[in-house]
Amino acid sequence: MSAWSLRVAACVLAAALVSADLASKHAVFAALDGVARERGDPAVVVVPGFLTLRQVLNPGGVWGIAKDHGELLVAFRALALVVLLVLLARTRIGQPRLLVGLSLVLAGAAGNLYDSATLKHVRDFLYFHVGDAYFPAFNVADICICVGAAFLVAHITCERR
Length: 161
Known about the structure:
This protein is of the alpha+beta class. The protein has helices spanning about 5-40, 70-90, 95-120, 140-160, and strands spanning about 45, 50-60, 120-130, 135. It is elongated.
């Protein structure tokens, strides 16, 4: 497969994941709106004591930081997207972990950028908890960023050997 074909495949992967992120946000938020109208409580317990679907609107970055600086966050996310595209364009053949990692982080960044640029907040809905210990809510874009970061760490680790 040529370098160009690999880069196109990476962009197709990223686009598919952005679509999955935006579609999941739309579907879950619409479903939770219906639940809220029916029951008055917009949360749905999926696995008791572990996973709840809940509408969380995050105007900031990770864990709500910089929530009062929306325009700055949009600019930072847009810049990160450009940097990721440049890195993806410069990735050599034979670096599959790097290519996949960049594609995943690109997808996550694009999904959250879309939300923050158009809605002024990021839609999160996956709310994991164990007993009374809660992890901040997140979405498919956040999963892409975390898994992509793991691929990038694996790439860096294997490159050093």
